[in-house]
Amino acid sequence: MTTYRVKLFRGIIIQFCCLLSVLFGFSSITAWLLDIPILASFLPAKVPMAMSTAVLFIIYGVLTFIQYKNISQYKFSKKLISINLFGILLALVLFILSINGIHPEIEHLGLNFSHSEYEKTIGHISPLTALCFLFIGFSFFTIQISKGKKFGTLTFILSVLIVLVSAMLILAYLFGIPILYQGEFVPPALSTSIALLFLGIALLLECLEIWIYNEITDVSNIKITFNLVIVLIIIIVGIVSAGYLYYKNYEKQYRTEMENQLRTIADMKAGQLVQWRNERLEGAASLFDNESFTGYVNDFLKNPFNINAKRQIQIWLKKFQTVYHYNSVILSDTLLIKRIIVPETEEQNKSFISKENLEALKSGKILFQDFYKNQSLQKIFLKLLIPIFSDKNSKIVIGIIELRIDPETYLYPLISQWPSPSRTSETLIVRREDSKVVFLNDLKYRKNAPLALKIPLYKKQIPAVQAVLGYRGIVNGIDYRSVKVIAYVREVPASPWFIVARMDLSEVYEPLQDKLWSTIFLVLGFILFSVASIGLIWRKQQMQSDAKFRLLFDNMEEGVALHKLEFDINNIPNDYRIIEVNKSFEQHTGIKNETAGGKLGTVIYQMNPPPFFNEYVNVALTSMPFSVEVYFEPLKRYFHIEAVSQGKGYFATIFSDITVRKKAERDILMMNTELEQRVIDRTIQLENVNKELESFAYSVAHDLRSPLRAIDGFSKIIYDEYFSKLDDEGKRLLNVIINNTKKMDNLITDLLALSKVTRSDFNISNVNMRILTDSIYNELATNEIKDKFTLIIHTIPDANCDTILIRQLWNNLISNAIKYTMPKQDCRIEIGYEKNKTGGYYYIKDNGVGFNPEYKHKLFGVFQRLHTANEFEGTGVGLAIVKRIIQRHGGEVWAEGNLNEGATFYFTIPGIEL
Amino acid sequence: MENNYKEVEILLVEDNPTDVELTLRGLKKYHLVNNIFVVNDGVEALDYIYARAKFSERDIDDFPKVIFLDLKLPKIDGLEVLRIIKSDEKTKTIPVVILTSSNEEKDIVESYKLGVNSYIVKPVDFDKFLKSVGELGLYWLLLNKTPA
Q1: Cα distance from B35 to chain A (closest Cα, Å)?
Q2: Peptide bond before A463: cis, by omega within 30 degrees of 0?
Q3: Cβ atoms within 10 A of the Cβ of A788, count?
Q4: Closest CA to A124 of A183, A35, A59, A48
Q5: Which of A:744-773 have CB within 8 Å of B?
Q6: Residues of A whose CB is below 8 A from B133
Q7: In Å, what is the CA distance from A897 to each residue of A212, A630, A792, A854, A881?
Q8: The dihedral sign for the CA sequence A12, A13, A18, A22
Q9: Nearest to A846 by CA among A903, A777, A905, A790
Q10: What is the pLDDT of residue A117?
Q11: In angstroms, what CA-CA distances link A331 with A51, A293, A611?
Q12: How far apart are the first and last CA of chain B?
């Protein structure tokens, strides 16, 4: 009963798990069809389950479900096997493709999520998932072809692996998903991991179903099992939470550290940049304020042939160029014609200065022109523009000094410099241009990025965008490569620049990843340990109860053998295997456990099919118990064999030696037979005696009558022929002889009639008692009697009886009634029937002389008379005959009466139908 | 009388001499006594009928008109004699009257099965006995016609 409950419980879990994984699959397909990613990923911003994964979940969820339904019969149709083979093939192909980084578009089946371009692996199966499905398919295959036991271990290991992998993945998701930060590896989705866990659990339970299902397990301690499971769940939750908290805390510390590092770097860089700018501006200002330099410029521009002025300017500018690492320093006149270029190079002789800048210069300002591209040189520069006035007070611009800065020389190295060794980290300088962010410096992962790479501002997940939007702080986002990064963004004061110090999340988590995996493995290890411990406790509990049964099994007087059915390739049972036998079995049969254990019935019993094969198959498959008693010729002993089911495909036989009982039974049987024989013998003897009696009666009838007839005949001859010679006394004596002869003849006749009652044939038929009594009365009664008597016959029922005997009975009773009523006046005879509790009785009542009730007991005796021969003639046999007839019918007869008050005779005949 | 078998009309098969005497008296009273031949057991009866042994000179075709047969006979009993007579084509037309003290039903039934023509229980009362025997003799000898 409880075993059944556990089985049922297990079944419910298996089916529930199967259904869930199928549901996950359908949910994901729906997600793909309707473009609702949340249905495939469960949590926003998580990877959705791939279409191919969903299809595999549906296939294997359904397969597991169907397999569970058929597991007990080990019947797996070819259809199921071919579906599984298809699944294995699909998983294999996907695995090979995926592991090689090939993600064919066909996996989407023409459907696509509107996902961002950085998630390039979305919708493709993870190689890990494909591998898990390969495991599942393979374990199915082993179950299907092996019918359970042999490959059960392999299946078990595979399903445990699947459960562990999926549990690990779920833990990884729970703890944060660093494995997802690597761009190349496709991670299994969270939904995939959960569905995989369900499928793995279903598969594991199915293994247990095959494994444990048929073992003798007492599950009376189901409550203990339940409690242990609860404890286990609490422990697992505890371990997972502890691991989670520990890891998260560690991660938080680590991140804070990393964030601080990023901030420090960004702040430092910003400071350096500010300083760099200030230095440039200060330098420019010194040139602007230098009156002697301004004088040389005035001289040179007024007189281009003033060689001295030109030389002085060139010295100044050269000094400037080298001190501040300018790419070049150019002096242009008001027409923007380049007059002096230091160092001297051939280039376009006209400067490009916008009108606004020109106006600004005229008002006497030094301008810092941000990154721009020099079209003629095809290079990116920054430049400082310094107006040169004719006179300190006149404010008339006569020339412009252009300080061209090549960022490659100092600025870019300054920016890209990172204080600590790092693989992915870099600093970016960006500025805003309308609704775009423009990258200004060289990038690690993108060539020719400065001024060329522009990202619209709506892409808020990009830290540079956040930066130009004025945010200052840590940004978790995606950089220009679509790679997850962590960044610190801030502005660079007194400049159009914003700085982004960023690092790939994968690098941030790299040291953390080791920590994470060690945490996950530790957690899994703890879980396994607690599962094992709880399992051990449970096992011990089981063992205790098992031990009880083992003790019973070993010590019970009945021989017990445990069997398992064997099936042929068509799943038709063709033999049974003896698993184990107990000591009593060994003693009873002489077959040792060592020799019989694990052997086939056909081998051990040297019979094909083995003994009671069909009956046992029936027991093992239908659970209907079977028992039989057999005589075992080789042992010369009787056995009672009882076969009981131990679950589908298994049965136990219980032998008890019933030889003693059988012997006793046989003795009783023999005694009975003997007794019967004795009865038969006695009956024959009695029959012989009866026959002798019959022949005696025959002799009486025949032999006694002849002399009697002779006596009577010759007396009468004497009477006739010698009448005259006899005196009166002689005549009287002769009459005495004749009368006595007559009496003796009556006696003989009555005696014969009496013996005839018991000897005659007995034929039951329906007799109409009313007609019978009426006719008998009419036969017996003379006219004289009829005049004198009143006969009343009431309504009396028919009787099932022997007609001849019943006729004799009524004859005797009615003639008696007539005889003993004759002396009375107003004679009455009444015949009737009375009902009572037990049925009813016939009666005949007269108002004759009656009898003395004291002698009632003598009425029915042979030769017993209550009247003298002088009063009433009779032999005293009539009522004895009546009694015998009633006895022969199985009824009763009795009489009531008083002297001179009439007599009533009653009798019953069984089986009267009213 | 012994040799004059031709005139024998009644064959009386009876072992008890007193019964023979009483029977003869009864028949005598009806004037049938001259044509009676008495044998005392079953063997003698069969010998007479089939003209064997001491009756070998008898003409076999000259059968008695009626046989009065007792059942209880020495050597071969009356029922056996009856069976033999009634199973023989030649003799089965001879009327046989069982004259016996037995009123056993099985005897009666058996006799009729074998083809007896009459079954008379000898009354103990002598007067009745005389009457029975005499009337039977008359019936079978005078009134009953048998095929020639």
Answers
A1: 23
A2: no
A3: 16
A4: A48
A5: 745, 752, 756, 760
A6: none
A7: 88, 67, 19, 10, 20
A8: positive
A9: A903
A10: 47
A11: 67, 12, 119
A12: 24
Chain A residue with Cα closest to B106: A760
When CB atoms are compared, the residue of A698, A710, A760 closest to B18 is A710
pTM (two decimals): 0.45
Distance from CA of A775 to the nearest CA of B (A): 23
Q: Which of B25, B104, B124 sits opposite A745 (nearest CB)?
A: B124
State how far the Cα of A156 lies from the Cα of A135, in Å rounded to an integer: 11
What are the angstrom distances between the C-alpha of A196 and each of A302, A485, A527, A664, A722? 87, 30, 18, 66, 140
Let me know: does A495 contact A273? Beta carbons within 8 Å.
Answer: yes
Nearest-by-CA chain B residue for A715: B126
| Rounded distance between C-alpha atoms, residue A233 and residue A240, angstroms | 10
Could you say which of B25, B101, B125 has the minimum Cβ distance to residue A706? B101
What ranges in A572-658 are assigned the alpha helix state H? 583-589, 593-596, 601-605, 613-622
A780 CB within 8 Å of a chain B CB: no
Count of beta carbons in the 10 Å neighbourhood of residue A255: 17
Spatial neighbors of A61 by CB under 8 A, at least 6 apart, are A18, A19, A20, A21, A22, A25, A199
pLDDT in tens, A584-624: 888 877 788 888 877 888 888 888 888 888 888 888 888 78
Report the gap between the CA of A857 and the closest CA in chain B (Å).
32
User: And the tokens for A623?
Assistant: 């659970």
- The reply to whether A742 touches chain B by the CB within 8 Å rule is yes
- Render pLDDT for A314-354 as a digit per residue (tens, 0 to 9): 888 888 888 888 888 888 888 888 888 888 777 777 777 77
DSSP 3-state of B54:
helix
User: CA angle A110-A113-A119, nearest 5°?
Assistant: 115
- For residue A627, the surrounding DSSP H or E stretch is strand A626-632
Confidence tier at A219 by pLDDT (50, 70, 90): very low
CB atoms A705 and B101 under 8 Å: yes
Residues from chain B contacting residue A703 (CB–CB below 8 Å): 72, 101
Residue A453 and residue A857: Cα distance in Å, rounded?
143
- The CA-atom distances, in angstroms, between A363 and each of A357, A383, A400, A519 are 10, 18, 13, 67
- Residue identified by tokens 């028992």 is A627
CB A907 within 8 A of CB A859: no
- Reported ipTM: the value is 0.74
Q: pLDDT, tens digit, for every residue of A504-537?
A: 887 887 777 777 778 888 888 888 888 888 888 8
| Mean pLDDT value across chain A | 82
Which residues in chain B are closer than 8 Å to A690, comparing Cβ atoms? Answer: none
Q: Residue B16: list chain A partners with CB under 8 A.
A: 706
Please name the residue ranges forming H helices in A51-124.
51-70, 78-99
Q: Do B105 and A760 touch (CB under 8 A)?
A: yes
Which chain B residue lies closest to A704 (C-alpha atoms)? B101
- Residue of B104, B105, B129 lying closest to A709 (CB–CB): B129
> A717–B129: do the CB atoms touch at under 8 Å?
no
Chain A CB contacts of B19 below 8 Å = 706, 709-710
What is d(CA A826, CA A824) in angstroms, rounded to the nearest whole number? 7
